[in-house]
Amino acid sequence: MAVVFVIFVSVGLAAAWYDFRPAQAEILAARGRLEQANKTSAFATPEARAKTRAQVAQANAELASARRRIGGSFALSLWRFLPGLGRQRAGLITLVDDSRRGSAAALVLLDRVQSLAEQGQLHDGVLPLDGLQQLGAEAGRAGTVFRALRHPSAGLWGSLGRARDRLNDVTASTAKSLTTASQALATTRGFLGGDGERRYLVAMENNAEMRDGGAVLSYGEIRFGDGRFQLDAHGSVTDIKLAAAASTPVPPGTQEVFGSISPTTLWQSVNATPDFAWSGQAMMDMYRQATGQTVDGVIAIDVPGLADLLRVVGPLRIPGVDQQVTAANAPQFLLHDLYEGLPPHSDQGLRKERLADVTTEVIRRLATGTHDMVGTGTALAAAAAGRHLQLWSSHSDEERAIVETGLGGGPAAVDADRTFHVAVENRTGTKLDYYVKPSVRQDVELRNDGTAVVRTTVTVDNQAPAGAPPSYALGPDEFTKEPGDYLAWLLVWGPAGAMQPASTPESGLLVSEGVATVGPGKTRALTVETTIPGAVRGGRLTLRLVPQARLDPMPLEVHLSAPGWDIVGAADWRGSWDQVRRLSWQVRR
């Protein structure tokens, strides 16, 4: 009798596997389509949105087919009566049904996005504030749907358990993104002048001379009101110099690390700290002291952020410039070509105006003609994700929302006890950061007691040409000896509550620093060790990594070693540090 039972089970399993394989192929195909659709670029243009909708619709059809196969399989239905297998069948059905609900919610949102895009375009500088509010509400509803799709993987075997975990990760991140978008859009009416006129300082950051972001070398003033916007003034920060420090209180840690470079007196130093909540306040105070004008907030944008917007408005013609400025050539044109042939200590007035000129023309283009509002929002979101666009508001309720949604604030705004941030800053006035390519490697050791030891190695690769003649871009200046010498200020921020030798509390984290001269064609490295007690929570080890907004994102490698622990999934991660990266491993003893 036992032999007959074994044969019966074996045949049943084989038949079930035969029925499941086509369904599995459809599920995998659908997953691939949905992951492709879950990218910012999928919403950039009407054509991209149409393509994305077609992908999601096809995925939905594939999931429906897989569900029919599974539900109609006699062999799989027998699993209900076998120990352990009933849980697998139920888990498989739930997985497919959750995926279908997610894809259906995505279709509804895509249709609503397209409808609002057609009805609420940005036309002659008129902002579709009501449409943005509606879109925020739709995103919030979709986020609620995705939050409800999370189910435990406990008891599911092998690839089925991994698939459930992966879907849980995707639905959680999607729900968070949609909720964040909903919160951000909810603040737009006030910030964009829907409830009364607003004026903002536009800080234009130059990525050829890095602080935590690009050094502020140009400025503008933008006004929102009556549903419209316009740029009222722009120029070089040399036009708004301060004779004395602004009144902004400087936190003790910020003063200790950055006080020597006068962050409340020099525009070039105001954003050396990664805490834009402080930098924004300081910029407003500095602008008021220099001009007598009070603004409602600050909008900081750098050259990669401008390139994102150039993809929306198209190529520009700037007076006095022979070539068109495009999304593709703007970084090289603004951060390299304009320096070519300039001698050391030359008059930079004309060159500095060019960044302001391009920014002004981008804003003018957005204020005239007709533009896809969703595409414009997508470009702004892409810039904000890499910290190439940051906001600060003097209105406390808006500022809280800005910080919560990652559109501003500092790196410690979320999960400060798990957050790292790395910056390589230029300790000179040269424009060498166009050539400087830092990279970061983290070696994470998880010890038996749940303590994580993280060794962060920052390598600075100076690709400036060796043997070049002195120039404004390459130096030397009063801080360096030879053309191309880069005086690198390497700063590593570790989590709050961690132990990090020779560190200072700053921006809600702990920062360790080092300064090194890196000659042209040379590399230098700095390693900082951070100890995080009780790093495992709820069976997971999590690190949150906030990037520096450089012209080229830093390559990032993270390697986890956990002797005595089982790691679920890949132990290593490698990729571009172009946005906040949240790495999480399920670990168990």
Give your account of this protein's structure.
- The strands form 4 sheets. Strands 8, 11, 12, 13, 15, 16, 18 and 20 form an 8-stranded mixed beta sheet that branches. Strands 4-3-2-5-7 form a 5-stranded mixed beta sheet, with helices on both faces. The chain has a 5-stranded mixed beta sheet with strand order 14-10-9-17-19, with no helix packed on it.
- The two termini are 40 Å apart.
- It has 589 residues and is of the alpha+beta class.
- Helix 5 (129-147) packs antiparallel against helix 6 (158-186).
- The protein has 14 helices and 20 strands.
- It is globular and about 80 Å long.
- Residues 4-9 have low confidence and may be disordered.
- The chain has helices spanning 2-37, 46-72, 74-78, 85-119, 129-147, 158-186, 188-191, 252-258, 276-291, 303-313, 330-335, 349-366, 373-385, 396-404, and strands at residues 122-123, 198-210, 214-225, 228-236, 297-302, 370-371, 389-393, 419-426, 436-446, 452-462, 486-494, 504-506, 509-518, 523-532, 536-537, 540-546, 554-561, 566-568, 572-577, 581-588.
What would you call the quaternary organization? single chain
Class computed from helices, strands and strand pairing? alpha+beta
Strand content: 15-25%
The DSSP helix count reads 14
Helical content class: 25-40%
Form type:
globular
How far apart the termini lie comes to 40 Å
> Unreliable runs, pLDDT <50, ≥5 residues?
4-9
Number of strands: 20
Largest sheet: 8 strands, mixed
Overall mean pLDDT stands at: 89
Rg over CA atoms: 27 Å
